[in-house]
Amino acid sequence: MTRPRLLGISGSLRTGANSTAILQTLAKLVADRADLTIHSIADVPLYNGDFEGDKLPDSVRALKAAIADAEGLVLISPEYNYGISGVLKNALDWASRPAFASPLKGKPVLMMTSSAGPTGGVRAQQQLRTTLAATLSRAVACPEVAVPAAASKIENGELTDETSVKLVLAAFDELMNEVVRLRPASVAEEV
């Protein structure tokens, strides 16, 4: 049985970030169903079109290769000023090149947000959805996954709030359904 290869990216670089903790918790919870590898974007430089093609930075090359190898993505961003984090937007800008032929094209993506506030980052989700639409990614159709008051729901680096865990896992199920649906028939039969 071939387990789906998934890539997780946190839009926070902070040590002990809530978004990263949620992503790490998800990876543990689904370890028996999928290989969810977390890829850091800490070394991705600011986007500069002068460095595309042969001049592509190694960290960007690694990010694009990881996305290309994955059957689906899990993106989580904190909400900063009603939007996604700059580092996540920057990583998506790099990964979206070349336009209409990037490793993001056709890739199923589960979007999640977290925040200290009461809305859990739902305003950032629209910005993330718009960015992903421009990359021709396949945003997974499911209720918005937003974790409000995130710090109070994380203990020892793990998401422990039962309601939030159920929401995250239900959305993950939809990502898995999309990944399996898009697999070639020979591979899908193995799952």
CATH top level label: Alpha Beta
CATH architecture: 3-Layer(aba) Sandwich
**Helical region count?**
6
Structural class: alpha/beta
Task: Describe the model.
- The chain has helices spanning 18-29, 58-69, 86-95, 122-134, 162-182, 185-188; strands spanning 5-10, 35-38, 72-78, 108-114, 138-139, 145-147, 154-155, 158-159.
- The chain is of the alpha/beta class and 191 residues long.
- The chain has one domain (5-188): Rossmann fold (3-Layer(aba) Sandwich), CATH 3.40.50.360.
- The termini are close together.
List keywords for this structure.
191 residues, 6 helices, six-stranded parallel beta sheet, single chain, alpha/beta, Rossmann fold, 8 strands, two-stranded antiparallel ribbon
Detail the topology: elements first, then pairings.
Elements: E1 5-10, H1 18-29, E2 35-38, H2 58-69, E3 72-78, H3 86-95, E4 108-114, H4 122-134, E5 138-139, E6 145-147, E7 154-155, E8 158-159, H5 162-182, H6 185-188
Parallel strand pairs: 1-2, 1-3, 3-4, 4-5, 4-6
Antiparallel strand pairs: 7-8
Can you summarize this structure?
By secondary structure, the protein is α/β, with parallel strands linked by helices.
